[in-house]
Amino acid sequence: MGLIDRRMGIFLTGLFILTVAVPAGNLWMEGQPVPSYIVSLLGKYLCYALLAVALDLVWGFTGILSLGHGAFFALGGYAMGMHLMREIGDRGVYANPELPDFMVFLNYQELPWFWYGFDQFWFACLMVLLVPGALAFVFGWFAFRSRVTGVYLSIITQAMTYALMLAFFRNEMGFGGNNGLTDFKDVLGFDLQSDSTRAGLFVLSAIALAGGLLLARAITTSKLGQVLVCIRDAEDRTRFLGYRVEGYKLFVWVVSAMMAGVAGALYTPQVGIINPGEFSPANSIEIVIWVALGGRGTLVGAAIGAIIVAAAKTLLTGWFPEIWLFALGALFIFVTIFMPKGVLGVIEGALAKRPKPQPDGKEAEV
Amino acid sequence: MTIFRQCLAALFCCLATLASAQSFEELVAQLPEGKFAERAAVVAQLGALGDPRAVPVLEVLLEGNLHVLKSNEAIVAVREVGSDDVAYDALTGEEFGIIPRRGSSKIRVNNGLRRDIRAAIGTLTLRAPDPALRLAAADAAFRAPNPDQLELLQSVRSDESDSEVAEALDYAIAATVLESDLPDEAQVAAIDTLREMGNQDALSVLTPLLQATNPVMAAAAKDAVAAIEANQRLWNMAQNVWFGLSLGSVLLLAAIGLAITFGVMGVINMAHGELVMLGAYTTFAVQEVIRASFPGLFDWSLLIAAPLAFLIAGGVGVAIERGCVRFLYGRPLETLLATWGISLILQQTVRSIFGPNNREVGNPSWMSGAFDIGQMTITYNRLWILLFSLAVFAILLFVMKKTSMGLRMRAVTQNRAMAANMGIRTGWVDALTFGLGAGIAGLAGVALSQIDNVSPNLGQSYIVDSFMVVVFGGAGNLWGTLAAAFSLGIANKFLEPWTGAVLAKILVLVFIILFIQKRPRGLFAVKGRAVEN
Amino acid sequence: MSIQLSLDGVNRSFDGFKAINDLSLTVEKGELRAIIGPNGAGKTTMMDIITGKTRPDEGEVLWNQTVDLTRTDEAGSARLGIGRKFQKPTVFETHTVEDNIALSLKDDRSVWATLFDRKTAEQEARISEVLELVKLDGDRARLAADLSHGQKQWLEIGMLLAQDPELLLVDEPAAGMTDAETMRTAELLRDIAGQHTVIVVEHDMEFVRALDCRVTVLHQGHVLAEGSLDHVSANEQVIEVYLGR
Q: Range of B103's domain?
């Protein structure tokens, strides 16, 4: 069980080629074979892939089905968005050097305290990790200690993101309400509209995804990773062996939330907007289908699943907008009933000469 | 001149219809004549006559707009429109046309006469045959108390037979007394009357008295204001409880089907909200058909829609169970995902058929309007929905506890293998249980179509709430669902005045999240070793 | 001999049903004790209370006469040295047989320690030793899910041994085993006793006889009789509620 097994090796190689080819095709090649919008689009997919890896860590390996991972993603996105808003400075419509446009519009007299520090890039980066991490810690500390598991946990994670969505929709919260944060100009002095900045963000996203995959892989191949699987398959047994299950869950939950936060932080500058819609429960459930489609508990599969679904969404909503929800809905049903191991499971099953029987874990004979 | 002919015609017309009340016309004709004192007598006679048509004439006179046309001595209302004088029938407001400048002479009034006119109008309306008019007049007298009218009010009050109007008159008299210079005892008695009135209007009369120089009055007013405010707090609370019950009934309706599928069967049905939506669209479709073909049946539309919605949503439910959920028993998280997929498909189907916008679902006549209890207002649609939700709950309870179907459902959910051995066809019981939960969601949709926007997103807005209700109440316990729905509804409405609607909802959500940490099995959990394992 | 575990006046009810009713029981260090009783006698609840899964409503549960077991959770009791084998064999099905044993070895259980853990040669040796003992050394690379029911029972016993607990709570180990395996299990448990304290809950009278140890009969959450198997078999109350039904 090395850090880089075959599937990880293939995926990282592919990712590396993409990371070189896409910026090259966009910036330096004759006739620009890769248009600029494709660069940002692919960058967005890579952010989704990182988010899917984060979810796979808790769902695939630990058995915690989070229906609220979009909340950590959005919080990371907002943390970065707040920095980008401060970066605008006096170039906004109201040319207020201190207050973002929406605050001037809403008659704020001064910057709310929770916006302090976001003018510093390093501070924003820290918050990208700390805010989702802190929310995950508090939420997880309560939930795991009191042994909320299974669907109950799923439902309250959904309630969590729903409550946050309602909160962020309010203008009084000081995060731009309905419209969210947008009209970003530049980051660290680089113009967000320029091709080179976009290509840079794309490369950063690829690096973050590779880093996230390797970190998740390192965790899951450690003894701790084995304990996580034990928790997933037989939580009680794990406790009776002396493992404090709640501590393990909390650890992986917080790590996963921070990964999701990083994904959100890279997403915001590439998409150019972050709004409360990102908190909607529907978005969070969609992440789950990425992981399920790719193959839960495979990490690489989760990333592939995210990219497949996101690309299909872009294409289908472009060609036949009516079809998309039908397709997505059918995907949910098909994958859960007919493809419990996901695309990766199917491919690897077909490749393996003599597929190993792997019963589904819990059912023991009576 | 055609105008004058018209005026004449109108007058004759009046005369003809007033054949029995000739004296009314004669009195009106006497208005321009004589000294103020004589005309005051005429006004008083008009008032005493009790003919309601004197009211508009007197009002015009009061404004100083009643004129006599020089040409034929007809009495008309004259108003300036632009630079022209336009004559109107003083009785009906019908326009006669432009009259020449100086073609008419104004009937003059002075302050003394104005007072008499007002009194006459008061008498007329206060003695109008229609109780609604009398009530309005009494209210007007309350709002603009005039000590000169006191005697009139008192005499009207002694003749009044309608209790509601009599009460309004009492308040008007009290307000008038407070404006008068009657002795303290009378004033204090009036304050007491207003204290019994006990609403915002009473407060607005009493509050200025707090500054009264007369200490007796100020003290009495202070007492009364305090009493009224306490009373109002009580009514406010009652109103909040009502709003809470109303919200609770909506939550109950949305959650009760889920209490069956999730609570009893343990199946997470994320498409539950969409089944509610199907019920709402069934109502819409039924109303469309009725509007187009049988307009007379509109008041019956909900009664027709309810069984249809139950069957349609229930049928879709059975299809979901047979086609999807049954392959996933024992895998709740997978069930959750698959049913979410179904919810997306149902949403998009409805959107493709009915379009993405809100559809108009009408209220039948028996569901529109409102009535007052004390100082709270209760709308009929909310009341019916509350009753409906309780009825659905009662029927469901009956089905689950008293019928053989319910017995089978409980048997299958408690011990599938044993139930199968006893000859119960577990597959069909599952399908029917799921269908029952789904059908009830459809019924909920019929009710919710009356108070919410009917759009393809209708279901989405209820799914989180209804899961919260079931989880809070304790899965598997119908009474728990009932208690949870109403307590969450009331809690929400009591928070709202302080925090606003959205924050109240957020707080309730946060509370439930924390509550589940403390009691993961809800309010009324089924305890025991069997459950823990 | 000193006392390993003592329960004194323990009560626990579920929704008014008294699962454990004034239960008092003492087990000495190194003792092998069989607990028998009809269904619903409170055997599993008793184990739950000892391991901290269930809290008693009242009563005292003491470990080594000092540690209050009513205040520990499952992991805490395991760390104290209480190992438990479930009635239904519970192993980590998606791990290999070897990993199942490795994860059970006595070791630092904190999150950080497991994150950076590396297997030592000593641990490897111990794993092989345990696998040999439960006759699974030929299957060490197989997934636990692929084992037969009896093998899973053995694997779980192996996990228990790897944990090296002071006290073993063993719930119906013979269920699903062949006669020969049953006898071997009894032999194994007899061997372990001495260095370890062992409490066995069992229905199978042949198995209990093979254990050849002190027997406690539970009935309605209360100790009905205690002594050698022959002694309790002669007890009229015991015959009435259990043996002679």
A: 2-113
